[in-house]
Model the fold of this input.
Amino acid sequence: MSDERRRELGQFLRDRRGSLVRAELGLGPIGRSRTVGLRREEVASFAAVSVTWYTWLEQGREINASRQVLDAIARVFSLTAAEKSYLLAMGGYAPMPATEAATIEQAPAHLQRLLDALDFPAFAVAPDWGIAGWNRAYAGLYSRISAVDPADRNLLWLIFTDPHLREMLPDWKETSRHFVAEFRAEAGARIGSAAHSALIERLSSASPEFAQLWADRGVERFASRQRVFLHPVVGELVFEQHRLVPSDAPELHLVMYAPVSGTPTGGRMPALRAS
Done:
């Protein structure tokens, strides 16, 4: 385990320990009024480990936690499935994606043909969230995509730095929060790689809002959900967002925006593709 991943594991544990509601664990307040946050010795007791060992884990010391111990801590903290997967990844108990080969500049030809066959917006995302391919409908939805410098053609970078895209998203604040939490869940085992660190540093310098969300350490698995765009030409578009993983190219994700029935969105697709 790298030093950076140990530090991230320790900070993640500190954050989650500090957010626990004591009453929900059958504990009284600390002092007269403190009702949130556990002491390290309380976590250690619930997880059946020594206080010293747990303290070292939070401090990012060079120790290795067993999966059983991390499972126990996850139960104490009532972690979600995504948060537990992230915890295990930090501890080295999750599949390890490639750390440096995270950039894919162009989707394979057969996946591009699939994107082109769809009449609603769709695009391909690399492990670093670089946009590796898109179809005509997506180019109509986000008209700047072809002109964006390839180095900036990253979904996370664009959502935080492009004011044009922000104006199109009436729920930008909620969408950006979801994106950061999902990115952290997927990038957990790559933390510490040069490419990942460079992206986070660049984003944090460019966007205080990203820096704050990243510091909050939210972790979520991707979930299909409704997306609303205010397009400057065709008007409001309401999609259901889906993501597929090709079995022959699992390093790429295909993101698709399917028009929601009962809205004018489907009828506006020809105008969107022509815009």
Observations:
- The CA atoms of residues 167 and 230 lie 8 Å apart.
- Residues 3-19 form the longest helix (17 residues).
- The radius of gyration is 21 Å.
